[in-house]
Design goal:
This protein has 5 helices and no strands. It has about 70 residues and is mainly alpha-helical. α2 crosses α4. It starts with a helix and ends in an 8-residue tail after the last helix.
Protein backbone atom coordinates (compact mmCIF):
# COMPACT_ATOMS: atom_id res chain seq x y z
CA UNK A 1 0.00 0.00 0.00
CA UNK A 2 1.32 3.43 -0.94
CA UNK A 3 0.82 6.04 1.75
CA UNK A 4 0.42 9.71 0.88
CA UNK A 5 2.57 12.50 2.32
CA UNK A 6 0.04 13.36 5.03
CA UNK A 7 -0.11 9.75 6.26
CA UNK A 8 3.66 9.36 6.20
CA UNK A 9 4.19 12.64 8.03
CA UNK A 10 1.63 11.71 10.66
CA UNK A 11 3.28 8.32 11.15
CA UNK A 12 6.75 9.83 11.59
CA UNK A 13 5.40 12.46 13.98
CA UNK A 14 3.70 9.75 16.05
CA UNK A 15 6.85 7.61 16.01
CA UNK A 16 8.89 10.56 17.30
CA UNK A 17 6.08 11.75 19.59
CA UNK A 18 6.07 15.23 18.07
CA UNK A 19 3.14 17.63 17.96
CA UNK A 20 2.60 20.00 15.05
CA UNK A 21 3.97 22.80 17.20
CA UNK A 22 7.10 20.88 18.16
CA UNK A 23 7.76 19.91 14.55
CA UNK A 24 7.27 23.53 13.49
CA UNK A 25 9.76 24.70 16.10
CA UNK A 26 12.51 22.24 15.15
CA UNK A 27 11.94 22.31 11.39
CA UNK A 28 11.44 26.04 10.86
CA UNK A 29 8.26 25.28 8.89
CA UNK A 30 5.30 27.17 10.29
CA UNK A 31 2.60 25.17 12.07
CA UNK A 32 -0.24 26.13 9.69
CA UNK A 33 1.81 24.69 6.79
CA UNK A 34 2.33 21.45 8.72
CA UNK A 35 -1.39 21.33 9.50
CA UNK A 36 -2.28 21.81 5.81
CA UNK A 37 0.06 18.95 4.83
CA UNK A 38 -1.41 16.69 7.52
CA UNK A 39 -4.98 17.50 6.46
CA UNK A 40 -4.21 16.81 2.81
CA UNK A 41 -5.02 20.40 1.83
CA UNK A 42 -1.41 20.71 0.64
CA UNK A 43 -0.77 17.42 -1.14
CA UNK A 44 2.38 18.57 -2.96
CA UNK A 45 4.48 20.72 -0.60
CA UNK A 46 7.49 22.67 -1.83
CA UNK A 47 10.76 20.76 -1.81
CA UNK A 48 12.29 23.19 0.68
CA UNK A 49 9.47 22.49 3.09
CA UNK A 50 9.98 18.74 2.72
CA UNK A 51 13.75 19.09 3.19
CA UNK A 52 13.25 21.00 6.45
CA UNK A 53 10.63 18.59 7.77
CA UNK A 54 12.67 15.52 6.80
CA UNK A 55 15.77 16.92 8.51
CA UNK A 56 13.79 17.64 11.68
CA UNK A 57 12.46 14.07 11.67
CA UNK A 58 15.88 12.55 10.84
CA UNK A 59 14.48 10.91 7.71
CA UNK A 60 15.10 11.45 4.01
CA UNK A 61 12.78 13.39 1.74
CA UNK A 62 12.23 10.08 -0.09
CA UNK A 63 10.82 8.67 3.15
CA UNK A 64 8.09 11.32 3.08
CA UNK A 65 6.95 11.12 -0.53
CA UNK A 66 4.63 8.45 -1.87
CA UNK A 67 6.53 5.48 -3.26
CA UNK A 68 9.79 7.14 -2.29
CA UNK A 69 11.06 4.61 0.22
CA UNK A 70 10.81 1.01 1.22
CA UNK A 71 9.69 2.24 4.65
CA UNK A 72 6.14 2.96 3.41
Amino acid sequence: MCMDISSKLAAFMAEKRLSQYELARISGVNQPTIQRILSGETADPKIGTLVNIAAALSVSVADLVPGGSARS
